[in-house]
């Protein structure tokens, strides 16, 4: 369903899964380069099923050096939630867009105002890595009222009972964190990935994607083996930071797409 | 009214009124929950308390004296009593906290501590506790601060700790906390984050206040002994994250004393901040209209923090404590004043408390003849170079 209000997250991801494909989620830091919007569109054309848009925060504690650098550069260019969402609003993409940011930006704007800003820009999902179940109640209701689905992150150390509650409260999809640590490229996939993916799949019917550290096609295929899909973020932003344009990002996304489709 | 305000147990959600909480990534939630459970048990366990009390006495040198500052008092026209945390082992109140957290680290079976540090005092204290307990220790310190506090970097290394300079953001205390949190997310199964102030996610603000409450507890008894059972009119302490102030206030919150915390003018979360969420807690924070954290700026590395512990936000909101500021110039003057009148060179941080007191007495805000308990949170050795350059 493509309307001015964007694409709802969970139905779209379920449709991808039902069609027998793995879900490919990509990421771009909003405002990182003047042509970041082109990069976003190019990723979608190259086969991304959902794009996370990073709304940069000055103190991103769950991010490694790549996204830290992307965030500080975007902030230095004057990026803020309004400028990023304004740039997205006119975009017509056939996949869901999800905002990834830290809770203080939400808290500063106010829950209702922030969720309204997202939905008015056609952003139908949110990921707030520093907002755990204990603290997320008020945001969850405001988001739900605006039609914004809040995906929750599950960790390798999340105990079983908590995993159940987390899966129940997650909207859109459940984001399995591959490893103990922050975002950033890694040479190999963590052994915790498979274990967590299996636990999540046996706990919920919601789409499950695995992320953190996935740096190329082989790792993507491996991480997707027990899950419904993967998230690739830092590896793409590293290209962007190194001066590569939307074309190079699209090519990187296309390689991962092909690898996932081959299985 | 104010008698009803207490500094108690914030409960499992770690709330002080609207402030506090536990805003951490999912990977850290089990560790915070475990820590709260362990601390709750240990704090209620007489054997643990005895071990800690023995260490505080035999290793850290407690109780610290209460010194009547006679010549300073004569000059100001108020009676100033100094709680001498500068006389503890390692030279600041930070030792009280790390001995407690070091013992807890052992109880939890963890083998490594990480810490953030600004001025380096908490880093030195953590490195000291790590050496004492046989733990591995990594201290994150903003690159700007490693230069400002070179001597403390060397002390930490002598004590066997690894100091990692932090080059992100403003390269000061805030960024050191970010980096310590990033380390902790990756190592939480073997590592305890030995947070240095009454900040961060629950249970840290509560736990660190409890561990520092020995300062206020002793001071209260010492004041009563000196003042024929009376309490001081005013209790004042400097505030970075707010641990020496919280520990001090805990001893006086149920008395009639006015409580005043003094922040650096360039890092006044209470003066210029609005409530927000950083480093796991909801509290007053320096931030822009979008919620980006602003950089604090002060001559004292230990007060260069854009936030303040959540319990202080609560005490301010309910009106039980007031938060004031002192400028770098006033602070340098106060540091010299105490040095010359009392033969005590304070650290730059507690010189903020004195700087405000001098101004408040001169403006009449603090009446002549008042009795003032001031926490002298640390000694000035670490700042000698900074002060030398500033006065040159
Ligand atoms: C001597 C001294 N006092 C005070 C502080 C500030 O910390 P807090 O506000 O937690 O007492 C520091 C921090 O480095 C310090 O070294």
Architecture blueprint of SSEs:
The complex is a heterodimer of chains A (263) and B (392).
Chain A: H1 9-18, E1 23-29, H2 36-45, E2 50-54, H3 65-76, H4 81-88, E3 97-100, H5 103-109, H6 111-120, E4 125-127, H7 137-145, E5 149-154, H8 160-169, E6 174-177, H9 192-201, E7 208-211, H10 217-224, E8 229-232, H11 234-241, H12 246-262
Parallel strand pairs in A: 1-2, 1-8, 2-3, 3-4, 4-5, 5-6, 6-7, 7-8
Helix pairs in contact in A: 2-12, 3-11, 5-6, 6-7, 10-12, 11-12
Chain B: E1 15-16, E2 19-20, H1 29-43, H2 46-58, E3 66-68, H3 70-76, E4 79-84, H4 94-107, E5 112-117, H5 121-133, E6 136-142, H6 143-148, H7 150-158, E7 162-166, H8 173-187, E8 191-193, H9 204-226, E9 234-238, H10 243-250, E10 258-264, H11 269-272, E11 274-278, E12 281-285, H12 310-317, E13 321-326, H13 328-342, H14 348-362, E14 371-376, H15 384-391
Parallel strand pairs in B: 4-14, 5-6, 5-8, 6-7, 9-10, 9-14, 10-13
Antiparallel strand pairs in B: 1-2, 3-4, 11-12
Helix pairs in contact in B: 2-4, 4-5, 4-9, 5-7, 9-10, 13-14
The structure holds pyridoxal-5'-phosphate.
Pyridoxal-5'-phosphate binds at residues 92, 118-119, 121-122, 197, 238-245, 302-303, 347, 349-350, 377-378 of chain B.
Description:
The complex is a heterodimer of chains A (263) and B (392). By secondary structure, chain A is of the alpha/beta class. Chain A is built from twelve helices and eight strands. In chain A, helix 8 links the parallel strand 5 (149-154) and strand 6. The relative contact order of chain A is 0.18. Chain B is an alpha/beta fold and 392 residues long. Chain B is 44% helix and 17% strand. In chain B, helix 4 packs across helix 9 (204-226) and helix 9 crosses helix 10 (243-250). The longest helix of chain B has 23 residues, at 204-226. The radius of gyration of chain B is 19 Å and the shape is globular. In chain B, 61% of the residues are buried. The A-B interface holds A 57-62, 64, 68, 72, 75, 80-82, 103-109, 129-135, 152-159, 162, 166, 177, 179-182 and B 13, 21-27, 29-31, 168-169, 174-175, 178, 181-182, 185-189, 274-280, 282, 285, 287, 289-293. Bound molecules: pyridoxal-5'-phosphate (PLP).
């Amino acid at each position: 369903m493509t309307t001015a209000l964007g694409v709802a997250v969970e139905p779209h991801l379920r449709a991808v899964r039902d069609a027998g494909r793995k879900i490919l989620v990509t990421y771009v830091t909003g405002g990182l380069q003047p042509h970041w919007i082109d990069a976003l569109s190019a990723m979608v054309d190259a086969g991304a099923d959902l794009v996370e848009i990073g709304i940069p925060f000055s103190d991103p504690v769950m991010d490694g050096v790549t996204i830290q650098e992307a965030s500080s550069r975007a902030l230095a260019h004057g990026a803020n939630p309004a400028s990023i969402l304004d740039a997205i609003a006119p975009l017509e993409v056939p996949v869901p867009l999800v905002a990834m940011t830290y809770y203080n930006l939400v808290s500063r704007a106010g829950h209702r105002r922030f969720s309204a800003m997202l939905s008015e820009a056609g952003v139908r999902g949110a990921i707030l890595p520093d907002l755990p179940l204990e603290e997320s109640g008020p945001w969850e209701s405001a988001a739900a009222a605006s039609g914004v689905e809040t995906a929750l992150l599950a960790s390798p150390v999340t105990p079983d009972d908590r995993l159940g509650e987390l899966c129940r409260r997650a909207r859109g999809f459940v984001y399995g964190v591959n490893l103990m640590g922050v975002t950033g490229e890694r040479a190999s996939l963590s052994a915790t990935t498979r274990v967590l993916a299996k636990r999540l799949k046996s706990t919920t019917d919601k789409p499950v994607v695995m992320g953190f550290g996935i740096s190329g096609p082989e790792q993507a295929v491996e991480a997707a083996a027990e899950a419904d899909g993967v998230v690739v973020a830092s590896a793409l932003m590293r290209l962007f930071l190194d001066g590569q344009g939307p074309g190079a990002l699209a090519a990187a996304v296309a390689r991962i797409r092909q690898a996932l489709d081959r299985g | 009214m104010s008698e009803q305000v207490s500094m108690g147990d914030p409960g499992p959600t770690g709330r002080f009124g609207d402030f506090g909480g536990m805003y951490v990534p999912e990977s850290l939630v089990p560790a915070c929950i475990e820590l709260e459970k362990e601390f709750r048990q240990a704090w209620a366990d007489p054997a643990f308390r005895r071990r800690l009390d023995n260490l505080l006495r035999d290793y850290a040198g407690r109780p610290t004296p209460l010194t009547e500052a006679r010549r300073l008092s004569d000059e100001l026209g108020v009676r100033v009593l100094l709680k001498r945390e500068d006389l503890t082992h390692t030279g600041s109140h930070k030792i009280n906290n790390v001995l407690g957290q070091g013992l807890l680290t052992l109880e939890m079976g963890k083998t490594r501590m990480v810490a953030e540090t600004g001025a380096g005092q908490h880093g030195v204290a953590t490195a000291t506790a790590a050496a004492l307990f046989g733990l591995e220790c990594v201290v994150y310190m903003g690159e700007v601060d490693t230069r400002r506090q070179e001597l403390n970097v060397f002390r930490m290394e002598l004590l066997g700790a690894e100091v990692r300079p932090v080059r992100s953001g403003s390269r000061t205390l805030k960024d050191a906390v970010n980096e310590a949190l990033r380390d902790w997310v990756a190592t939480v199964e073997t590592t305890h984050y030995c947070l240095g102030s009454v900040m961060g996610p629950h249970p840290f603000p509560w736990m660190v206040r409890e561990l520092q409450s020995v300062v206020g507890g002793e001071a209260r008894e010492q004041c009563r002994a000196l003042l024929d059972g009376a309490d001081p009119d005013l209790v004042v302490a400097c505030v970075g994250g707010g641990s020496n102030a919280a520990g001090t206030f805990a001893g006086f919150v149920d008395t009639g004393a006015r409580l005043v915390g003094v922040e650096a003018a360039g890092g006044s979360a209470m003066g210029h901040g609005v409530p927000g969420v950083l480093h796991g807690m909801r509290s007053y924070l320096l931030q822009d209209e979008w919620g980006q954290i602003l950089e604090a700026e002060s001559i004292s590395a230990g007060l260069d923090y854009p936030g303040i512990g959540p319990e202080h936000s609560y005490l301010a909101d309910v009106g039980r404590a007031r938060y004031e500021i002192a400028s770098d110039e006033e602070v340098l003057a106060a540091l010299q004043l105490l040095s010359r009148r009392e033969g005590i060179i304070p650290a730059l941080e507690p010189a903020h408390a004195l700087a405000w007191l001098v101004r408040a007495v001169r403006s009449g805000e603090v009446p002549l003849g008042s009795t003032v308990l001031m926490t002298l949170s640390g000694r000035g050795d670490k700042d000698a170079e900074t002060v030398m350059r500033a006065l040159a």
